[in-house]
Each structure stands twice: as C-alpha cells, then as structure tokens.
C-alpha cells in the first residue's frame, strides 16, 4: 500500500518485442545505432504514483539514497531481488527528469505492479519509466504536449519513448526516434520467460566482441533490410512475417546463454511459425498462425522444460494509458 497524500494515478504500460533489430557499430557515446521494428504486446506493468507533498511545511524530500519506489501486488522473491528500489530504478530517474522539466521536487511515491519480466529483453524497466512519466504528468496536471513528454522519455532510456507510443513503430538512432508503422492486423505470440535475466549492456558488448573476433570469411550474420518486414506487418500475414523475424542481438544472447538455442527450437517444434530472442533476451517470442494455435503452442512449450513459464500474447496494443485516478478528468 502506498502511503501518501491524495489519491493515486495509475497507468498501464505494455511490454515490447522487436520484430526486426539491426545493430550498427559501437558509437563513441557507448550506444549502437539501431534500425528496429517495435511491437507492443498485451503484457502490462501497472505504475501508480501518489503525492507525498502535504502542502504544509517542507516538502517530504526523497533524496537519491531513498527514492520512493515500492513493488505492489504478489511479488516473488526473484522480483524482489531483481528490481532495484534505489535511485538506479529507471522509474525514479523518469520522476527526477520530469520534476526537473516541471521545476518542482519529485515529491512522490511510485508503486510498480510487474508482469513484464525483469531484465528479459521486453523493456520492462523502460515501461515503468514511461508509466511514471505519464502518471506524473497527470498527477501534476502538467500542460506538456505529447512531443515534450516523448522528448523527456528519450532522455531517460532508449526504449522509454516506444513504451509511451505503443502499437508498431520503426525505431532509429538509439531506438528513440520513432515513426508509426501501418499495422491494422493482430499477430499472435507465445512468450517464453526464463528464470534469470541478461544485462542489456553485456549483450551489446558480447555482440561487439563476437564481431571483432569472427574470422573475415565467417562474419557474424546480420539481419537483412527492414522494408520487407514493414510490408509483412502491413499485410497482416503471419507466415510472411515469420520468415523475416530477425535480431542481431540473438547471436550474442545465445552465446551468453546457450540454452536459448533449445528454447527457440522447442517453440518451432511445438508448432510456432518462427521464434526469435526478444531484444537483448533471454525472453524468446514465437509467432503463431492464429490465437488457437498460440494456445496450443503455449501448452506444449510449457511442458518442454525449456523455460520458466509461457504466456500467450497479442500485438500490437496501444502504449501507456492512464487507467485510474486522472485528476484532470
Ligand atoms: O538507453 P538504455 O539505458 O536503455 O540502454 C542500456 C544500455 O544498452 C546502454 O548503456 C548500452 O550499453 C546499450 N545500448 C546500446 N545501444 C542502444 C541502446 C542500448 O548499446 N541503441
């Protein structure tokens, strides 16, 4: 329970997967240029914010050592161990960034109800940051346009802007420059979650290492061009898209976690059209022909012993959305 002054504002934010992820060379700033196609899936985190500002006396200042973040709902021991509740949490960084733009203190508590896997390659931390931005913009009744909020999001992390945006989008730069992608059709997915995470910087680093050490005659394979992927998304044909799913980070994720090879094989054996590592992994996602097929694949995959748990999901779904307590409504 969040202790606070006033009612909370709650926002729901989707997970993302990458249908296509082309990774360029390491930039001087430590990032890589990407060309990626994001899709938001109906796996959601809920973020609640409440004010701790009483309006009387000094503001309840929450310093960098003691940010007001807590986990809500049924929290597993693994989540408790994996989600940082200190100033390194991206949701807290988002609160600090927005407070700065608004010229005020981050006098809030943030509650996270997590369904998106932690360190799973589905941008769960970014979703929490995006949800915090939208919830605080409502709580503080900020007169910020969507563009301004997207700009703050891009400064907080590479995937935060997409979590606000949702749907299907082409991402360039670090992934934060977004263009919506025409996608009127629903795709059906099975998501295989692991019992451990992979560090995003470590996976990018492993890809750099693999590329630097591969022999000239056997370079690390790169995904093809993005245009056919966009066409397949627009057509809504899962079979066409299945042939084109690709992720440059997959080789690095599999190199760090060789068991993923078995997971990817098992999904296809179970009847999925294709499987791919999501973002920096270790979550694997499997595209299925339709909803009933996804349910069958999920049932078979969950008995195969190649992942912690499976979820059936679909996409695209909209981005971050206020679901409760918008004081402006
Ligand atoms: O932007 P964000 O904090 O989510 O990125 C986490 C890390 O992932 C970066 O510090 C960097 O190591 C890696 N990264 C990258 N190129 C990108 C996005 C992320 O190298 N485009």
Automatic annotation (TrEMBL):
<comment type="pathway">
    <text>Isoprenoid biosynthesis; isopentenyl diphosphate biosynthesis via DXP pathway; isopentenyl diphosphate from 1-deoxy-D-xylulose 5-phosphate: step 3/6.</text>
</comment>
<dbReference type="InterPro" id="IPR014721">
    <property type="entry name" value="Ribsml_uS5_D2-typ_fold_subgr"/>
</dbReference>
<feature type="binding site">
    <location>
        <begin position="117"/>
        <end position="127"/>
    </location>
    <ligand>
        <name>ATP</name>
    </ligand>
</feature>
<dbReference type="InterPro" id="IPR004424">
    <property type="entry name" value="IspE"/>
</dbReference>
<dbReference type="Pfam" id="PF08544">
    <property type="entry name" value="GHMP_kinases_C"/>
</dbReference>
<keyword id="KW-0547">Nucleotide-binding</keyword>
<feature type="domain" description="GHMP kinase N-terminal">
    <location>
        <begin position="89"/>
        <end position="167"/>
    </location>
</feature>
<dbReference type="InterPro" id="IPR013750">
    <property type="entry name" value="GHMP_kinase_C_dom"/>
</dbReference>
<comment type="similarity">
    <text>Belongs to the GHMP kinase family. IspE subfamily.</text>
</comment>
<keyword id="KW-0418">Kinase</keyword>
<dbReference type="InterPro" id="IPR006204">
    <property type="entry name" value="GHMP_kinase_N_dom"/>
</dbReference>
<dbReference type="GO" id="GO:0050515">
    <property type="term" value="F:4-(cytidine 5'-diphospho)-2-C-methyl-D-erythritol kinase activity"/>
</dbReference>
<keyword id="KW-0808">Transferase</keyword>
<keyword id="KW-0067">ATP-binding</keyword>
<comment type="function">
    <text>Catalyzes the phosphorylation of the position 2 hydroxy group of 4-diphosphocytidyl-2C-methyl-D-erythritol.</text>
</comment>
<keyword id="KW-0414">Isoprene biosynthesis</keyword>
<feature type="active site">
    <location>
        <position position="16"/>
    </location>
</feature>
<feature type="domain" description="GHMP kinase C-terminal">
    <location>
        <begin position="230"/>
        <end position="304"/>
    </location>
</feature>
<dbReference type="InterPro" id="IPR020568">
    <property type="entry name" value="Ribosomal_Su5_D2-typ_SF"/>
</dbReference>
<feature type="active site">
    <location>
        <position position="159"/>
    </location>
</feature>
<dbReference type="Pfam" id="PF00288">
    <property type="entry name" value="GHMP_kinases_N"/>
</dbReference>
<dbReference type="InterPro" id="IPR036554">
    <property type="entry name" value="GHMP_kinase_C_sf"/>
</dbReference>
<protein>
    <recommendedName>
        <fullName>4-diphosphocytidyl-2-C-methyl-D-erythritol kinase</fullName>
        <ecNumber>2.7.1.148</ecNumber>
    </recommendedName>
</protein>
